């Protein structure tokens, strides 16, 4: 393909990308980017195509503008039998996008052109290359948006699970049930005993009786210091009995 054929391809591209392509063209005036890195003059075989991506939304309130970049094309005289010279640049005056960074993505995007260039040698290929690099860039953005959404979904699921745990009791196993039953029965027995003692005390009180005094054992008497007194009381009782028996004999 000679220069005439290259001009014809350029005219086709101008009709497809009327607002996206800049540079010398038979049907388009020369336009220069007002950007320090992209202000060099271009020739009729060198031009730039602005590519705006159709990226998925992450549903953020202040969603940024769609990402975009510039594909710079330079055609050697032997094109398309030899590959075109290709490069990518940031779009001038375009804000940075959270899911697209050309300083990181540039090698990936240029590598995505290797296969279509190889497959289309000998044919006009610029339109195909624009389509390929656009799809590659959109795939990068889509993967990053999906990763963020997956992380957000995982966080929501974790928070929901944590919230649900507040309304869930302890998992019941056989061992835990038996332990609970034993503890419950002991508590009920203790409660029944206390209630029974309380009823008995109330009934005695109604009858005017006194609560039955608990008979102290020898150990209890010793611990309370009453053992000596109890023995003295017993001796006094025995002495009184003996005196009473003597008096009866005298009579």
Termini separation = 165 Å
Q: What's the overall average pLDDT, rounded?
A: 77
Helix segment count? 7
Low-confidence stretches: 24-41
> Helix coverage percent of residues?
40-55%
Report the major sheet: 4 strands, antiparallel
Q: Class by helix and strand content?
A: alpha+beta
Could you tell me the number of beta strands? 4
Radius of gyration: 51 Å
Percentage of β-strand residues = 5-15%
Cα shape: rod-shaped
Give the spatial strand order of the biggest sheet.
1-2-3-4
**What is the H/E order?**
HEEEEHHHHHH
Characterize the structure shown.
This protein is an alpha+beta fold and 251 residues long. 53% of the residues lie in helices and 9% in strands. It is built from seven helices and four strands. The chain has helices spanning 3-16, 102-111, 114-119, 126-165, 174-206, 218-224, 227-250; strands at 21-22, 46-52, 68-74, 85-90. Strands 1-2-3-4 form a four-stranded antiparallel β-sheet, with helices on one face. Helix 2 (102-111) crosses helix 4 (126-165). It is rod-shaped.
